[in-house]
Amino acid sequence: MRTESVQKRVLAAAQRLCETRDDWTFTPAEVVRSLPGLNEATVRTEVTGRCCVNAPRHHARRWPYFRRVGRGQYRIEPPFRERAPSPRAARDFRTARGSLRAAEAAPAYDAHAVDTRDTVHAVVTRSAGWYVAECLELPVITQARSFDALLANVREAVALHMEGEDPAWLGLSATPRLFVSYEAPLAEA
């Protein structure tokens, strides 16, 4: 599946989720649940990085669909806030314009259900002799001169961030794993 179509599906899913929300906010977990046919990691990457205007700088290409507004919370940017047409309007449009794919209805979720993950994702880049790691699910950024020291720093920073917190409130299991990916340029500039 082409990246563009994944981004459009992620945007459409977020729009469906926010149809009845005045603040236009959602979580990546809600988008993942509404797109069961797509890889969870791909959907999370699209929401938190590629489709987010205030994503980390290491994302070379970004689309202006969402803005991170809090811990695990994203908001659809004003130009992309669309309410889905009523079923009658959609039917009339299909009749007038030919074939129009009906939008999938957003699944109903239990508002009190807790979505827990067992993985914290960290993206590592290298800049000016430093390794820099930024966690996607938690507001944790750290750096070190060596990759091994960086891994130790990330573990410590995540542990300190979670200290005294209820992991479920952060959307994490009691003993999350750390998944680290390293982004390197294909060619030196």
SSE inventory with pairings:
Blueprint: H1 3-17, E1 25-26, H2 28-34, H3 40-50, E2 66-70, E3 73-76, H4 87-97, E4 117-127, E5 130-135, E6 141-144, H5 147-162, E7 172-182
Parallel strand pairs: 4-7
Antiparallel strand pairs: 1-3, 2-3, 4-5, 5-6
Helix pairs in contact: 1-3, 2-3
Word description of this protein:
This protein is an alpha+beta fold and 189 residues long. Helices cover 32% and strands 23% of the residues. The protein has helices at 3-17, 28-34, 40-50, 87-97, 147-162, and strands at residues 25-26, 66-70, 73-76, 117-127, 130-135, 141-144, 172-182. It is globular and about 50 Å long. The relative contact order is 0.13. Residues 89-114 have low confidence and may be disordered.
Short descriptors:
189 residues; alpha+beta; three-stranded antiparallel beta sheet; four-stranded mixed beta sheet
Helix percentage: 25-40%
Most strands sheet: 4 strands, mixed
Spell the H/E element sequence. HEHHEEHEEEHE
Structural class: alpha+beta
* Number of E-type strands: 7
Shape: globular
- Low-confidence spans: pLDDT under 50, at least 5 residues? 89-114
Report how far the terminal alpha carbons are from each other.
30 Å
Q: What's the total helix number?
A: 5
Strand fraction equals 15-25%
